[in-house]
Amino acid sequence: MKRLFVLFSLLACWLTLAIGCKKNDSEPQTELRFVVPSNFPEAVYKFENNTVGQAGFELGRHLFFEDALSIDNSVNCGTCHQQFAAFANLDHSVSHGVNDCFGTRNAPPLFNLAWQKEFMWDGGVNHIEVSGLNALVDPCEMANSLDNITSTLSKKQPYPDLFKKAFGTPEINSQRIFRALTQFTAMMVSATSKYDKHIRKEVGGEFTAAEQAGYILFRDKCSKCHSEPLFTDLSYRSNGLDQDPKENGREKISRQASDQGKFKVPSLRNVELTRPYMHDGRFFSLEDVLEHYNSGVMDHINLDPELKKDPVRGIALSKTEQQQIISFLKTLTDNEFIRDKRFAEL
Amino acid sequence: MSLTSMMRSAGLALLCLAAISCKKDADPQTSGTGNVNFEFEHRVGTQALQMNTQTYTNANGDDFKVTGFKYYVSNVTLVKTDGSKTKIPESYLLIDAADAASRLQKLEKIPAGDYTSVEFVIGVDEPRNFAGAQTGALDPSKGMFWTWNTGYIFLKFEGTSSKSTQPSNQLFFHVGGAKEPANAVRSVSLALPVALRVRTDTEPDMHFIVDIAALFKGKTNISFASISGFHGGANGILVADNYVNGLFKVDHIHN
Fold first, then answer.
1. Residue B154, in any domain of the structure
2. Contact, A181 vs A78, CB < 8 A?
3. What stretches of A138-275 show up as alpha helix (H) in DSSP?
4. What is the bridge-based pairing of β-strands B63-80 and B113-122?
């Protein structure tokens, strides 16, 4: 009888263990936490129906660096969004897609996307989850189709396993692809620059005299559009690049003449790393950009009122002031972000 | 147990089951749920739609052929005589005139009852245009989603006309957009010729006639010489304001 009891206990133990293991297998993936930095506002993206988890994030990372997303296996998202350039495309004015095709706009850096309500230079994309769609299908970028991508990934290991881990079943559809990519990209938060440490009074946040002088100038002359803490007010404006712009910009989306030639105000976080600058990547240095505001602003019909306040168009800045502002802008470089192994190429 | 007694027991059990299910079905008009089939038949005016080959004439007198016709019907709501409404959750139907299977759409789990009108959105409601990655009929792979100005194409008419100023005399009317000033979301409410009887044990058909000629007449007669191709915007509004009256009609119901 006693032996029987032991046997039963053992059996019960084993069963519990077995059930426990099985349960663990089908349990929802471990949750990764999206943390809003203390000096940031609430995020726009709430991860609704797309709770971020380790498996979804890792799948997103695989997809982000997957050449098979392009029609000829030649490029991936990371080709034009390089981590060392804060996920912009260093030294490329416009992006270089498949078949040696060049796009028309400068690849934007990727960080703090969860705070954006609209995407692209003209704001034509209204949700982070579909922000990668155009790059996948544009003939000058990855030139693929969603049907082809889903069927390719279904036959390519480790994707069926990764989708099963992330979503419970190995089924692959565009919604799952976009949600996984979003888990990866929305987690790219850049908030550990020297500036952030300065604001949060953390170690390493002490400004030099030049940085402090630059910060005061910046707040006076630049922050109306490049407002803290995101360093953009997410609006669309003309900064007088051309009198007669080649591109209509925001007007293409809003269909309002008053938006002709306007583009989204880019964030200045990591700006030291993301050259070249402007929607068409025409300026290759921060010195060129500041000199544009000082002396190069053209009288475009929709020129922003902020650039018309002074008797002379633009923002008068001496060479010393320009250098001080650049010193400050370099405090926006987030070295921890660009070295964060979670976002590194696989 | 002998075979006969087993059969007897089985028979009894069956009888019991029958009795239970009879009881459950006592008032099939008000209890349970049923399915309804929406059937879409495409015409141009009074003529049947024959894609690619048949030449038609619009209200402006312009010739045209139809090479493609796709549209969304969404947010389907059935209305009873007393005015009470049943909105069918997640009802997003994508109908492609060139795809026979898509012309017959099954709507499931509709509360039993007698319905006298149907309401729906032609296209996709505003919120879903701003809700991120979708699946099923709303999957962007269906070719009814703008990638450069994200949002759904609600209705896509493609064809040719000798009056068109486009390359190869093409016509492309892509109506969509859920943002002012070019919000093309339109809703219709259609009276049914007889009550639609939704029951647990039958599957009635609602037969729609979809008249493509309605795109080009009504509020604004469309001249293909002046409007031959667009992706949303003001021209889409002209066409949406036309088709909201006359594109759909419930021709008959098979209860």
1. yes
2. no
3. 146-154, 159-167, 174-186, 194-199, 209-221, 251-254
4. antiparallel
Q: Which of A50, A104, A126, A247 to mutate to test the interface with B (most CBs of B within 10 A)?
A: A126
Taking Cα atoms as reference points, which of A16, A68, A124 lies closest to residue B150? Answer: A124
CA gap B208, B140 in Å, rounded: 26
Reported as half-sphere exposure (CB side, CA atoms, 13 A), residue A20 has a value of 6
Residue B179 within a domain: yes
Q: Which of residues 272-331 of A touch B (CB under 8 A)?
A: none
Within 13 Å, how many C-alpha atoms sit on residue B247's CB side?
25
Residue B149 lies in a domain: yes
Query: Residues 6 or more apart from B229 whose CB is under 8 A from it?
Result: B164, B166, B170, B171, B172, B173
Q: Are strands B186-198 and B145-146 parallel, antiparallel or unpaired?
A: unpaired
For an interface test with B, give the residue of A69, A119, A130 to mutate (most B CBs within 10 A).
A130
Give Cα separations from B195 to A54, A69, A315, B29, B116 (angstroms).
Answer: 53, 51, 71, 12, 5
Tell me the β-bridge partners of B118. Answer: B78, B190
Residues in chain A: 346
Residue reference for tokens 């602003």:
A297
| Element containing residue A237 per DSSP (H, E) | strand A236-237
Q: Are A129 and A178 in contact (CB under 8 A)?
A: yes
The number of residues in chain B equals 255
Name the residue among B243, B158, B253 with its Cα closest to residue B208.
B253
Q: What is the mean pLDDT of chain A?
A: 92
pLDDT band at B8 (very low <50, low <70, confident <90, very high): low
In chain B, alpha helices (H)? 3-24, 234-243
Q: What is the pLDDT of residues A267-294, one digit of tens each?
A: 999 999 999 999 999 999 999 999 999 9
CB B242 within 8 A of CB B215: yes
pLDDT digit string, tens, across residues A64-81:
999 999 999 999 999 999
User: B191: domain range?
Assistant: 32-254
Q: Which domains does chain A have, with CATH numbers?
A: 54-190+337-343 (1.10.760.10), 194-336 (1.10.760.10)
The reply to whether B136 falls in a domain is: yes
| Number of separate domains in chain B | 1
Per-residue pLDDT tens for A293-313?
A: 999 999 999 999 999 998 899
Cα pseudo-dihedral A165, A168, A174, A180, rounded to 10: -40
Interface of A with B in 113-132 (CB under 8 A): 124-130
Sequence-separated (6 or more) residues with CB below 8 Å from residue A279: A105, A106, A121, A247, A249, A263
